[in-house]
Predict the structure.
Amino acid sequence: MPGSAFTIDSPPAAHGVRFDGSMVYFVLTDGREIGMPIDWSDRLSQATPEQRAHWRLLGGGVGVHWPDVDEDISILVLLGQDCL
């Protein structure tokens, strides 16, 4: 795909998550961090710090899931590349 930063075989992937104040940061395998205001997610904004800390990667890092609050966030959607 011309102009794309990745191929279908290697979409951007997360390997970590951290919270700082009113932001959640997704740490990507390529070294980037993508920040998102917590308020963009009603479920995360209402979650306790313990619930926010309990997350797992989806699909090898293409998304992140918080089981305690039933929230899923896609890395591609955060990057504005949800349609390939």
Remarks:
- The beta strands are 14-20, 23-28, 33-37, 56-58, 63-66, 71-74.
- The chain has one domain: 14-78.
